[in-house]
Amino acid sequence: MTLEIESLLFKQVARPKHHLMTKITNLWENRYRINVYIEIEEDNLIKRRIHSSYFCHYKPGNLTIIHGTNKESLKDAT
Hints:
mainly beta; four-stranded antiparallel β-sheet
């Protein structure tokens, strides 16, 4: 099921260039928090950050983004 949710999310929003992973957490019933992580090199260090976060409603075959943040302003995020 989490693969379907991730696939439905990336049909609606762009996958970030340095995508590391997507963490999907069921909050209650069919409501989910989805955090999209990136991995970038900055100051000769590998850093992992949340690139975007979404609160979603899921029904099989359908994902509705209720609220989301997208931090496109992160250095080297896109």
